[in-house]
Amino acid sequence: MQNHLEAMANTIRFLSADMVQKANSGHPGAPMGLADIAVILTQHLNLTPTRSSWLNRDRVVFSGGHCSALVYSLLHLWGFDVSIEDLKNFRQLGSKTPGHPEFGHTHGVEITTGPLGQGIGNAVGFAMASAYAKNLLGENAINHNVYCLCGDGDLEEGISYEACSLAGHHKLSNLILIYDSNKITIEGDTQIALSESIKERFNSQGFDVFECDGHNFSSIDTALKNAKASDKPSLIIAHTTIGKNACGMEGSHKTHGAPLGESVIEESKKALGLDPKESFVILPEVKSAFEQIISKGEEAYAKWENSLSVEQKAKIEEIKNPDFSKIVYPSFEVGKKIATRVSNGEILNAIAKIHCGFLGGSADLGPSNNTILAGEGDFPKGRNLHFGVREHAMGAICNGIANYGLFLPYCATFFVFSDYMAPSVRVASIMSSQVFYIWTHDSIGVGEDGATHQPIEQLSHFRSMPNLYVFRPADANENIACAQVALELKAPSAFVLSRQNLEVLPPVERAKVQRGGYAIKECENPDIILLATGSEVSIALKAAKKLEEQGKKVRVVSMPCLELFEKQEKAYQEDVLSNREITIAIEASRGFEWYKYAKEVIAMRGFGESGKGDELFEYFGFSAEHIVEIAKKL
To answer: Which of 503, 524, 558 is where one domain is finished?
Structure first.
């Protein structure tokens, strides 16, 4: 049996090393060090390539993207749609095996990983999603485990502390982190920058901590059994050697991020009794062993399917396919004043009444962000998630919840703190994972809190992120239309919302917002076009009235979603913004993106100040009077 397991592990080692060598790029060290763990972990998993979206499958997250060669080797051996040719095309343009694992690109990859620490947050998200799913569907329907392989770099990133703190707080007992403790970083031994007790850290966060020899099959198996039996989240500290079985290079940081070299690989294969001249070799008995182990996933799926009641199956379908046409949105009286953060709170609650898979919360700002779902209770039995002051982890956790396959999550904070979330928002955008970001207190309108809390550059940043839709509604009614559009998008959406009250404008057709921008005040052959977003739309409308009193013809364009507008046909764009030379854009942000459409841009040229919000708008030139002055010069 020992020789059998060693053959399986060495197959993984040298598939990984051969992939990196052929590509002349990649990370062989961690895959070779984790090969023994991968073999035993395989025996504990319930998954199957023919049912790759099975709801109750075990989730496996490779937080360290430098394990990608290991991921692809395993996916091939497990029978997923990753061929030997795909392994040989590792890191090549257009291949199924990119430099870091990408969800939706490679069959069997659960979530896109690479930026260190993100995967741990994703795994916590999977575990939280399963906890709520178990509450909805029952323990016979949801009883899987979430495994996350991570390294020193993941644990050094602050996001891992945030995420694991929340996991321990909620006693997410199906979460098992496997820490590849090889004591090596790119710069050398971990002791140059890491000296705390990882065991004590995780014990203090509410984890059970187990240790094992990462190259002893029995020790690994015992640790996994203990972790699965725990009523807490678990950390397995696996003591491994980076570059295991790489002759002359075992334990060296040089194996981390560069090919081993042909001579080292040949010598290493020879030392283990393998043909040194052959690459990408999988012996029939090894392939058969992996297939036999994973075939139990088919049996587990069939058993699970038969255990579900008619009601449980109907509930799963209801969550997966909500009927958004049944949403009864709130009504807002034209002329009244209401902040878009407040109207958005009512909209979230309206969505939740129809979609029982809609859940989320804030980074300790629920009352300010208006994100609490009334009467729904708190996680894990309710849909209100309390993330605490953990924006980094919140974003990554929501990616895991979104990719779980049942839920539409939302998360919220002040817009200025979206900076903490940028890495996870970027990954969500790469994956096209549907997450709603609720970012309130969207401008200098924050007021007295001053420059540190007044977002200036964030709009330009997130608008430049591909596949993210940034909505900045002008009022409560436009907010409804933005939500209607976002629900149908298979991508992440951000709602950038005001702290201050805004006048409610007449309802707008969803079709207009679907185009990203539209004339909220139309006129033929305008002398001046005023382009604005969010709270500045009302200011633009007031300026238009003043200009008309002076005999000018004015069109006002509201642009709630620039990304959608830029997807429209050129004829529509030119119809709405017919002449750049007479267009003025108004937005209380940096506004660089508006020069494409406007001759003049009234925007922030520096950071804000501390003072009352309405006084700051006047001070920085966001007033009807100042717009009129600029229009006259234009």
So the answer is: 503
Collapsing DSSP to helix, strand or coil, 567 comes out as coil
Name the residue among 133, 137, 115, 116 with its Cα closest to residue 125. Answer: 133
Q: Are residues 220 and 244 in the same domain?
A: yes
The C-alpha atoms of residue 263 and residue 39 are separated, in whole angstroms, by 26
- The DSSP call for residue 582 is G
Q: How confident is the model at residue 261 (pLDDT cuts 50, 70, 90)?
A: very high
pTM: 0.97
How many Cβ atoms from other residues are within 10 Å of residue 381's Cβ?
11
Identify whether the C-beta of residue 70 lies closer than 8 Å to the C-beta of residue 105: no
Looking at 275, 304, 333, the residue that finishes a domain is: 304
DSSP 3-state percent helix, strand, coil across the chain (nearest 5):
45, 15, 40
| Residue of 110, 162, 346, 391 with catalytic role | 391
Segment 312-345, tens digit of pLDDT: 999 999 999 999 999 999 999 999 999 999 999 9
Our count of domains for the chain comes to: 3
Range of the domain at 591: 515-633
Residue-wise pLDDT tens digits, 64-104: 888 999 999 999 999 999 999 999 999 999 999 999 999 99
- The position carrying tokens 């904070």 is 413
Average pLDDT, the chain: 96
Radius of gyration of the chain (CA): 27
**Reading across the β-sheet that carries 175-181, which strands appear in turn?**
59-62, 146-150, 175-181, 234-239, 208-213
Tally of CB atoms within 10 A around 280: 16
Q: Are residues 359 and 233 in the same domain?
A: no
Q: Could you tell me how far CA 487 lies from the centroid of its own chain? A: 17
Question: Exposed (0-12), middle (13-18) or buried (19+): which is 24, by Cβ within 10 Å?
Answer: exposed
Model pLDDT for residues 504-562, shown as the tens digit of each residue: 999 999 999 999 999 999 999 999 999 999 999 999 999 999 999 999 999 999 999 99
391 flagged as catalytic = yes
Q: Which residue pairs from 262-265 have beta carbons closer than 8 angstroms and sit at least 24 positions apart in sequence?
A: 262/21, 265/14, 265/17, 265/18, 265/21
Q: Are 557 and 529 in contact (CB under 8 A)?
A: yes
- CATH label of the domain that carries residue 54: 3.40.50.970
* 272 and 148 housed in the same domain: yes
Q: Cα 510 from chain centroid? A: 27
**Are 259 and 110 in a shared domain?**
yes
For the beta carbon of residue 89, count every other beta carbon within 10 angstroms: 18
Residue-wise pLDDT tens digits, 360-372: 999 999 999 999 9
Residue 1 is predicted with a pLDDT of: 67
Tokens 């749609």 label which residue?
Answer: 81
Looking at the fold, whether 466 and 526 belong to one and the same domain comes out as no
CB neighbours of 333 closer than 8 A, spacing ≥ 6? Answer: 504
Tokens for 290? 């992996």
Contact between residue 433 and residue 459 where contact means Cβ atoms under 8 Å apart: no
Q: What is the pLDDT of residues 16-26, one digit of tens each?
A: 999 999 999 99
- Claim to verify: residue 219 and residue 297 sit in the same structural domain: yes
Residue 104: Cβ within 10 Å count: 13
Strand partners, 502: 338
How far apart CA 295 and CA 308 sit, in angstroms, is 21
DSSP SS3 for 254 = helix
Residues 244 and 332 in one domain: no
Regarding whether 530 and 493 lie in a shared domain, the answer is: no
